[in-house]
């Protein structure tokens, strides 16, 4: 099992834009309304922080590899090598480069119309890290930090997420 995690604040930010871009989901007039729903667990797919908390019990399983979106963005080559090794797959340097090139956000966004149709425009927005800083108020930031600490703080997944690095303002 490959468990891909992402900074919860960026998850909220991306989901806000996703919700507003997809007609089948509730759209939100304001970020504040969305944030309230996100923090009070009124999301169609549940609470991301609870999801992290539940997965923590599997963090040490030998058949589970945990990787973060931030790690992949920071060092795609090492991430692909680690994933390949985990699943028992060896890659030549040429194959490694091909995987890196084809799985880059830019490449997937460029090909999204072919791979995902009209949904591609909604799925592939920015692909960055720390976009949450453009939406979160100081109060929202503190509220998310508190909820994270209560549900996930001190766990292996919290450490893996490098919450102090990617999630603190």
From TrEMBL:
Example of a GO MF term: sulfotransferase activity
Taxonomic superkingdom: Eukaryota
EC number(s) reported in the record: 2.8.2.-
Sulfotransferase domain boundaries: 1-155
Entry's family note: Belongs to the sulfotransferase 1 family.
PANTHER family: SULFOTRANSFERASE SULT
The keyword Transferase appears for this protein: yes
Entry protein name: Sulfotransferase
Keywords, comma-separated and alphabetical: Transferase
Region forming the signal peptide: none
Organism expressing this protein natively: Acanthisitta chloris
Pfam families: Sulfotransfer_1
EC category name: transferase
């Amino acid at each position: 099992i490959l468990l891909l995690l992402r900074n919860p604040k960026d998850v909220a930010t991306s989901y806000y834009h996703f919700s507003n871009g997809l007609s089948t989901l509730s759209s939100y007039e304001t970020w504040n309304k969305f944030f309230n729903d996100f923090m009070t667990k009124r999301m169609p797919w549940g609470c991301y922080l609870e999801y992290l908390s539940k997965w923590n019990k599997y963090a040490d399983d030998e058949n589970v590899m945990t990787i973060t979106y931030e790690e992949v963005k920071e060092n795609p080559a090492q991430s692909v090598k680690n994933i390949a090794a985990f699943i028992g797959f060896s890659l030549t340097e040429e194959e490694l480069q091909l995987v890196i090139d084809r799985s880059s956000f830019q490449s997937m966004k460029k090909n999204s119309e072919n791979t995902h149709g009209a949904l591609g425009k909604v799925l592939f927005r920015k692909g960055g890290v720390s976009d949450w800083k453009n939406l979160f108020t100081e109060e929202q930031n503190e509220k998310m930090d508190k909820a994270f600490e209560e549900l996930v703080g001190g766990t292996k997944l919290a450490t893996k997420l490098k919450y102090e690095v990617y999630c603190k303002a």
